[in-house]
Amino acid sequence: MITWIEDDVPPKDFPSFMKNTLRCDVHPAALKHLSEDTVSKRIPFPRLEKHVGYLFGITYIPANTENPSADFDAIIFAATHDSVIARVIPHKTSNLDWDEMKLSLSSVNSEDSTADGGEFILNLFRETIDYLWEDAENIRVVLDGELDIGKDSKLKDSKLKAISEIAANQDQLGVKERRSLLEGLNRLSPTMSIVSAEMNQMMRIAVESEVILKHLCTDEDQYDLREDLDGNQRELFSTDLEIYLADTWELCRTLVATLQEIEAKIEETNTLIRSLSNEENVAASRFTGAIASLLLVPTFIVGLYGQNFVSMPETNWANGYAFSWGLIAAVTILQFIFFRKRGWI
After folding, report:
1. What CA dihedral angle connects 97, 99, 105 and 107, to 10 degrees?
2. For residues 79 and 116, what is the distance between their CA atoms, to the nearest angstrom?
3. Any residues with CB less than 8 A from the CB of 88 and at least 6 apart, and which?
4. Please, are residues 308 and 270 in contact by the beta-carbon 8 Å criterion?
5. Residues 268/164, Cβ–Cβ less than 8 Å
6. C-alpha angle with apex 157: 155 to 162, nearest 5 degrees?
7. CA–CA dist 272, 325 (Å, integer)
8. What values do phi and psi take at 36, rounded to 5?
9. What is the pLDDT tens value at each position of the chain, 345 positions in all?
10. How far apart are alpha carbons 87 and 84 in whole angstroms?
11. Domains (ranges, CATH) in the chain?
12. 3-state secondary structure labels for all residues of the chain
């Protein structure tokens, strides 16, 4: 039997309600978590603990897989072989239909010998991993779409699509192409910051869920209850449930690897942004130096011939004025060609 605490209002005389429903005493710390909101201001971190006669746990499900800045809904529960009491602490960004979710999580077969509590915990971790997968795929779609530089009109003819390709062929980018790419990546930076923050939480939940699932599917005493409250030898997680748990564990391991790939892509993008920014700063310094040089030499020539010395031969030439202009033009053009070939201007 699965019992949900509704509307964030625990029943009166909550300790007695818990004891009567679960048929065992519940630790005051577990009672506090189930009766109060003790998790919404904390870092999401799944937990599963074996107490006397029951398991206590907290899991987290993405509140809105379509919103990269969304947080996580918390599910707090205490489970025996035949009874579960659970409570949802939804985040303000949540768009999950918890009426439907509760029905899905409560889908257990009370007619067979399989423990309802074990089935509920299996359902809970399945839903957690499925929603984390959906969240991860949506993040990957966002990143792949935003980082497709071919979408930028200034780079529509570019064959460099993936960040790894861009990074490997960075030296081949022209000045305009590099600047346009950097502008696009800088526009993406706020989204990257939001995604990075969510990725840290998703990774923490996925890794800890993987550890818990490994213990559950390998039949360890750390989490399994070998005897029910009537004294019968009966595992909370039967062999059949452990097979399903192993399948969920494998999916969670794949999820962790996928999240690591997304994290690597984010880091690769951040590295590319820093590299392009450094190149742009160097290019700006070179451009400033080139312009200063173009102006400095003509200024020097003008200043040289502006000196009022009688012995300066050029002042008495018939073509002295034209010579000075020719010298200025020649030096300026030669400098321009030199800087242009080096890509400084």
Report:
1. -130
2. 8
3. 4, 73, 74, 75, 98, 101, 102
4. no
5. yes
6. 70
7. 46
8. -130, 165
9. 888 887 666 677 888 888 888 888 888 888 888 888 888 788 888 998 888 888 899 999 988 887 767 788 899 999 888 888 888 888 888 888 888 888 888 887 766 667 888 889 899 999 999 988 888 888 777 776 655 554 544 444 444 455 555 655 656 566 666 666 666 667 667 767 777 777 888 888 889 989 888 888 887 777 788 877 777 888 888 888 888 889 989 999 998 998 888 888 777 777 777 777 776 666 677 777 777 777 777 787 777 667 666 666 766 677 777 777 787 788 888 878 877 777 666
10. 10
11. 2-281 (no CATH), 285-341 (1.20.58)
12. CEEECCCCCCCCCHHHHHHHHHCCCCCHHHHHHHHCCCCCCCCCCCEEEECCCCEEEEEEEECCCCCCCCCEEEEEEEECCCCEEEEEECCCCCCCCHHHHHHHHCCCCCCCCCCHHHHHHHHHHHHHHHHHHHHHHHHHHHHHHHCCHHHCHHHCCCCCCCHHHHHHCHHHCCHHHHHHHHHHHHHHHHHHHHHHHHHHHHHHHHHHHHHHHHHHHCCCCCCCCCECCCCCECCCCCHHHHHHHHHHHHHHHHHHHHHHHHHHHHHHHHHHHHHHHHHHHHHHHHHHHHHHHHHHHHHHHHHHHCCCCCCCHHHHCCCHHHHHHHHHHHHHHHHHHHHHHCCCC
CA 170 to chain centre: 25
The residue behind tokens 């300790």 is: 15
- Whether residue 94 contacts residue 110, with contact meaning beta carbons closer than 8 Å, is answered with no
Look up residue 94 and give its two tokens: 């949540």
User: Quick one: tokens of 328?
Assistant: 């200025």
Q: Nearest 5 degrees, angle CA 65-CA 70-CA 71?
A: 105
pTM > 0.90: yes or no: no
Residue position matching structure tokens 């935003």: 146
Distance from C-alpha of 296 to C-alpha of 284, rounded to nearest angstrom: 18
What count of residues does the chain have? 345
